[in-house]
Amino acid sequence: MKGSLLVAGASSDAGKSLLTAGICRWLAREGVSVAPFKAQNMSNNSAVTADGGEIGRAQALQARACGIEASVLMNPVLLKPGSDRQSHVLLHGKPYTQASALGYRELKTALREQVLASYDTLRGQYDVVVCEGAGSPAEINLRAGDLANMWLADQRNLPTLVVGDVDRGGLFAALYGTLALLDDRDQSLVAGFVVNKFRGDDRLLAPGLDMLCELTGRPVLGVLPWLPDLDLDAEDSLSLPWAIDGGKPVGADVLRVAAIRLPRTSNSTDVDALGREPGVLVHWTTSPADVAEADLAVLPGSRATVSDLAWLREQGLDQALLRRGVLGRPVLGICGGYQMLAGTITDEVESGAGTVPGLGMLPVAVRFQADKVLGRPTGNAFGEPVSTAYEIHHGIATLTATGQAEPFLDGYHSGAVWGTTWHGAFDSDGFRRAFLTQAASAAGRDFTVAPDTEVAAVTEQQLDRLGDAVCQHLDTEALTRLITSGAPPGLPRIATPLTMPKPIQTTTQQPGERTS
Questions:
Q1: Which of 332, 479, 359, 503 is nearest to 420 (CA)?
Q2: Catalytic residue among 24, 335, 394, 473
Q3: Catalytic residue at 335?
Q4: Strand duo 406-408 + 265-266: pairing
Q5: Which residues pair with 391 in a beta bridge?
Q6: What is the DSSP string of 345-358?
Q7: Is 0.70 surpassed by the pTM of this model?
Q8: CB 256 within 8 A of CB 292
Q9: Which positions fall inside the CobB/CobQ-like glutamine amidotransferase domain (predicted)?
Q10: What are the residue boundaries of the structural domains of the chain, listed by start?
């Protein structure tokens, strides 16, 4: 099998990322050499690849579904929002520039060359590339500068599936309307629909699916069921669940974890591993009362450390954390959260704020440097190895009061306050169990950590569930035909009420392929 496919969405959060991962896992189990691709991603949840760059965590998960190592080629353009109007632009995993929403449009000509080069390289390395779109292809205000949706499909003749979320309502209008708002060329590439997150008897849905097929001339390739307890990596903090429940405790007591939901939370997946432990109840919160009452409070990473620290103070959350420090109740800071625990933060790089006071809960001073630290370090803590960590940060912490803190991974701890810049450390099973044992003891909880929870195995099981869902509920023969042969010719057009603006011209072209 050789070819490509684009998975687009009738809306954001329709399930593109997980459907792409499911298709990748299905193909990999069939023995197909397959890789994921997302031309442009906007997310503050990123992963560090073996080739030393940042990509969206969803693409790292999809690479895992393929059984391959993640690469910066799989997500050549990554936007990390630093505010409502500004994003940091990464190209092939490295900082490229900072741009406003309007200014970013001017970059797209150059970025398109890189996107196509990345895609073409992957197509040369793998038999199949499964591409994920961004947002919706029917965002007509953005079509002229599109990178990840129908522009990519047009450039490389990609057959396109549109997936819709039935759980949020308006499914048929969303699927039909997405197709109707595309121009003739784009419509010719949309070869079918997928319904996602259906609960109940799908016979109730069948009449509507038949009518949709009749109206559009395109088949519905399947109805994916709602998959409960699926907690794979979120694309962004906007889709964070408010709670993660590890299930029935091993012993008599539970451990309550309050994770502070910062405005610019990054790498929120750090606490997912805690929430997979039986008896651990993780709750994302903005409430000082929740933070005060929890057994463990977590300050997560942030894409805007100084700004989020100011917000923390405005909400009164700083007082809740400081009170915990006085009482000796556990507090954990990760990356940006660790920096907030410092005595001072000097930042001329990210915020330009100069030196500002931190929470003063750890005897360190943080200074932001221009070059970002990216890596996949290893280490030990509590006598347990940590082999799953990665780091992404500008801030460097320096100990200011020797004898008042002990090393903790690459950071420090003082009493029941811990800080580290390492993301992903809790995916190391032995370390996670040892840390939870320490935190429970400091909180005065009679909590028993399960001896056999394996985060990697749970992730693999959940990826297999996605692959099973694709195999059992989608027309895989039709998927195979689309991947190998492309969109069938002569698909009917739906009258488009608009004249679409012409896309920006590009010059990169392969024989037999279109340019706009």
A1: 332
A2: 335
A3: yes
A4: unpaired
A5: 375
A6: EEESSSS--EEEE-
A7: yes
A8: no
A9: 256-430
A10: 3-39+105-231+460-485, 251-449
Whether 3-39+105-231+460-485 and 251-449 share one fold: the answer is yes
Q: How is residue 313 written in tokens? A: 């103070």
CB-based contact 190:218 (threshold 8 Å): yes
The catalytic residue among 283, 394, 423, 473 is: 423
CA nearest to 380, candidates 413, 425, 335:
425
Q: Which residue has the tokens 């006085």?
A: 326
Distance CA 6, CA 132 (A): 6
> Which two tokens mark 515?
């340019």
Planar angle of CA 374, 376, 382, nearest 5 degrees = 125
CA separation (Å) from 415 to 325, 338, 406?
8, 15, 9
Listed residue (147, 189, 130, 194) closest to 486, CA to CA: 189
Q: Round to the nearest angstrom and report the end-to-end CA distance of the chain.
A: 28
Mean pLDDT split into 10-residue runs, the chain, 516 residues: 96 93 98 97 89 92 97 94 78 86 73 96 98 93 90 97 93 96 96 95 91 96 90 58 76 93 92 93 96 97 95 97 96 98 95 95 96 94 96 95 92 97 97 97 94 94 96 97 96 74 51 40
Residue 301: both structure tokens together: 């990473």
Instruction: Determine the Cα–Cα distance for residues 179 and 173; give it in Å rounded to an integer.
Output: 10
Residue 237 DSSP symbol: G
Separation of alpha carbons 9 and 181, rounded Å: 13
Count helices and strands (H / E) in the chain. 15, 28
Q: Residue 7: is it exposed, middle or buried by C-beta count within 10 angstroms (0-12/13-18/19+)?
A: buried
Tell me how far apart the alpha carbons of residues 433 and 438 are, in angstroms, rounded to a whole number. Answer: 9
DSSP states of 85-115 as a string?
Answer: SEEEEEETTEEEEEEEHHHHHHHHHHHHHHH
Sheet holding 296-299, edge to edge: 243-245, 280-285, 255-260, 296-299, 331-334, 417-420, 411-414, 406-408
Residues 6+ apart with CB under 8 A from 212: 172, 175, 176, 193, 218, 220
Cβ atoms of residues 365 and 344 within 8 Å: yes
- Token pair for residue 89? 């632009």
Three-state secondary structure call for residue 516: coil
Q: Residue 266's closest CA among 289, 300, 313? A: 300
C-alpha 49/C-alpha 69 separation (Å) is 8
Catalytic annotation on 24? Answer: no
The residue type of 425 is: A
Q: What is the CATH number of domain 251-449?
A: 3.40.50.880
Are the C-beta atoms of residues 188 and 31 closer than 8 Å to each other?
no
Copy the structure tokens of residue 306: 């100084």
